[in-house]
Amino acid sequence: MGKKVFHELIPFEDALSLLLDEFSKRVKYPLAGEEVPVEECIGRITAEPVFAKMSSPYFHSAAMDGYAVRAEDTFDASELKPKRLKLGKQAVWIETGDPLPSGFNAVIPLEEATKFEDEIEIYRSYSPYHHVRHVGEDIVATEMIIPENYLIGPVEASAILASGITKVKVRKKPIIGIIPTGSELVSSKELENTKLSPPQLIEYNSLMLRGFIKEDFSEPKVYPITPDNENVLSEVLKQALTECDVVLINAGSGYGEEDFTYKVIKDLGEVVINGVAIKPGKPFIAGFCESVPVLGIPGYPVSAFFTYKFFVRPIIEKLIGTKLKKPDVIRGIISRKIPSKLGVDEFLRVKVGCVKDKTIVSPVGRGAGLLMSVVRADGYIRLPKDCEGFSQGQEVDVFLWKDKSEIKNTIVCIGSHDNTLDILYNFLRKRYPEVSLSSSHVGSMGGILAIKRGEAHVAGTHLLDESSGEYNIPFIKKLLPEKKVVLVNLVYRVQGFIVPKGNPKGIKKFCDLAREDVVFINRQGGSGTRLLLDKYLREEGILPEEIKGYENEEYTHMGVAQAVASGRADVGLGIYAAAKALGLDFIPVAEERYDLLIPKEFLELSIIQALLDVIKNDEEFRKLVESLGGYDTRDMGKIIYEN
Question: Domain for residue 587, yes or no?
Fold first, then answer.
């Protein structure tokens, strides 16, 4: 089969509108109802309004402990002229919830009457139904408890049962089929007894999709992994069409020779969308096989995530007859420049935190295969197709996945990357579950400038001043002359060459980086590691253009280590802990001091106090950092400088 060519991509809004229009023409919705016991109705959607079968309470009852009386017998009682009522005739002892005796219509609280041998004395008059729960006080027979297309919660279910109803008619749960495709895929069960080798991949998208489907009040049905075979996929789809309300074919929606989703849907029905101008998620396909929507979900996990949210959820809403929860939207300020290509709507994952009166938005990652960019993110921003990007400081709308209260308890840390920040975040969540840490890796210089602009609570920095040999302080004095700050040490760490196991190219010195057979991986401009590299290159008279790969950048030490581990580079400059984590060799170059810069105005914030408590007092945290290798915690938590 020849390689397919790209069709014209449909703009995002047009694609969604087309999908829902075609759905409305071809599919009968919402789904029919089914009766379920009231005990099983929580989390279901009503298929018809629910009307009370009986009143609640259905008899007059006492609202508190006391004496049941006839209100008219109390009308002439007062403090100046108390009145006595005969027990058993004019007053009857009653407890909370007891039925009101026939002929009685009020309750006098125990503490408002004085009991004698066979009488009580009262000191005021009482109106009819005083402290009485009358019939229908809560629910009146025949009144509507909840309408059609309503999500039943625990309280609503209790009200339904209280009105005498034992069965409720709810929408049938849509059955959403998931067909994972790819000859290279290995299931979780197979993984237990399989050692992966290229090109094998773990099939995990169906787990994510299944979870989303359950969250959206639907029932997932996952089919076995289908190999890259058109006939096999066609047979599995035919079966799914008889069992499901919607079918998702995961992977195979691209334009490669082994991507059969388009052809199989076209052969069994009609394709209405073949590619959408969004990033990630461009290869999305939508079609119909008679009245069943069949959606081609791209194989990259972030593409699968977004196409589910944007295209599958609106269909589920129609089937269940109600709207699903939408993300909260807040306005925030971009922490660094974000370029973008024209022609597609891009959805970029971001971390969010509040610094004084500013909401700071920091990009997490852009790749469609970067599932951790979703794990680490608090939400996403949209870069419109007619936009070439956002500038630093620009205001944008952020669509949140997390609660706004969690955003307010987030420490915004912008600056240099270090592996200990991930450990610190974990210990913060362990000791202070309400506190979160948003770490954006823009380099030491970027962190100091973020502090200057008031856009971060904390900045990680390890800038070496060549003239004095001092770390960080000269830069703070120069860039923040009037800002009141403290500089707290986190760790001393060893920087050096990260090379493959056995150091096959014998890299020992900086002059080796300029060899023809060596490919280097660099850190981004403005990072302390980049400044350290450039210092040594100047000292040894090596020009950046002499180094193959100098222009290739990573934003973290782990990114550098991974580039070496995967063979993308022969060497990179980074910390020992990153090399050790991936089983690489390491040639030490220098020890440096890694500090946290904190404006004094934030020191009393509870979230910063929590951060400092872990750094200064948590021995478990200290020991774990030391176990990573290449770290010295001799000054951890010590104030190095303040002004």
Answer: yes
